[in-house]
Design goal:
mainly alpha; Rhopdopsin 7-helix transmembrane proteins; 76% helix; 2% strand; globular; Olfactory receptor; transducer
Length: 324
């Protein structure tokens, strides 16, 4: 109840909004939203558990998938309380400090996922273009260093954005467009000049995700060039099939994120309900779809999951026999 409070009124609070104009249908809307959250939580937890347990999945490609699922899971958990709080209990009010903390984690895990997608593109580049050096370059220690680097990178560049918000004068009980705290949404329509904060947020967006996306595009240009040099069509198809999951993950992450960012910064006249739908797609689509794609398209992940479920099923049957 520290975060949600419908009775207090102070300039340091914000009002969250789920779907503007559809308040009477929030209970019904919450059913598919809740189902999507359950799928995201179970799917990503299953992938994390399978990769952690199965020794044969302790390879660079699956380590990066582990990081991607961890980022998706943390991003889902970050927005879950406020989204369901607004839809179920109409608990719209959130304090400035709580909003700042949630905004930090939303952007941190979002930028982290972008960095993991960029690293995974490098993994595919090494596997296809330099297969002989793959095992020597992407060792366990190198992967740990890469993971620590991208985590520190998020902290260094996100903290200035948070500190800059301390200087902004907000409207009393400012109404946001989303059921979670998002930087472009917070700085819109402030009393003080939001130019510095808007510029800083745009710079971080372009630097963090822009450089990652550019790195991904360059990697795939080199991958396509290497694949086209392969004479055998079957080998070409096999090489490209290893990139299908990653290409899908990149698409479902960057398209909603770029659309939402440009809608807030460049299209100020966009209806709020459109912004709300884009925001929910941006936050829920990757965590929901990524586990499904990797489970269906990656045979080793699919087999490991089936083996794990069969083991759990046989263990349960044996336990029931003991009690009979």
């Amino acid at each position: 109840m520290m975060i949600f409070n419908n009775t207090t009124s102070s300039p340091s609070t914000f009002l969250l909004t789920a779907f503007p104009g559809l308040e009477l249908a929030h209970v019904w809307i919450s059913i598919p939203v809740c189902c999507l959250y359950i799928i995201a939580l179970l799917g990503n937890t299953m992938i994390l558990f399978v990769i952690f347990v199965k020794q044969r999945l302790h390879k660079p490609m699956y380590y990066f998938l582990f990081m991607l699922s961890a980022a998706d899971l943390c991003l889902t958990i970050t927005t879950l309380p406020t989204v369901l709080g607004v839809l179920w209990f109409h608990a719209r009010e959130i304090s400035f400090k709580a909003c700042l903390i949630q905004m930090f984690f939303v952007h941190a895990f979002s930028f982290l996922e972008s960095s993991v997608l960029a690293i995974t593109a490098f993994d595919r580049f090494m596997a296809i273009c330099n297969p002989l050096k793959y095992a020597t370059v992407l060792k366990d220690m190198m992967i740990i260093v890469i993971g620590l680097f991208i985590c520190v990178r998020q902290l260094i560049f996100i903290f200035p954005m948070l500190l800059a918000l301390k200087t902004v004068s907000f409207q009393e009980r400012k109404e946001l467009s989303h059921p979670f705290c998002y930087h472009p949404d917070i700085i819109r329509d402030t009393y003080s000049n939001p130019w510095i904060n808007s510029f800083l947020g745009l710079f971080l967006q372009l630097y963090m995700t822009g450089t990652d996306l550019m790195f991904i595009l360059v990697s795939y240009v080199l991958i396509i060039r290497a694949v086209l040099s392969i004479v055998a069509p079957k080998k070409q198809k096999k090489a490209l099939n290893t990139c299908v999951c990653h290409i899908c993950a990149v698409t479902i992450f960057y398209v909603p994120m770029i659309s939402l960012s440009f809608t807030h910064r460049l299209l100020s006249s966009t209806p709020r309900v459109i912004c709300s739908i884009l925001a929910n797609v941006y936050l829920l689509l990757p965590p929901v779809v990524n586990p499904i794609i990797y489970s269906l398209k990656t045979r080793t992940i699919r087999q490991a999951m089936l083996q794990l479920l069969q083991t759990k099923g046989s263990w349960s049957r044996n336990l029931l026999r003991q009690f009979q």
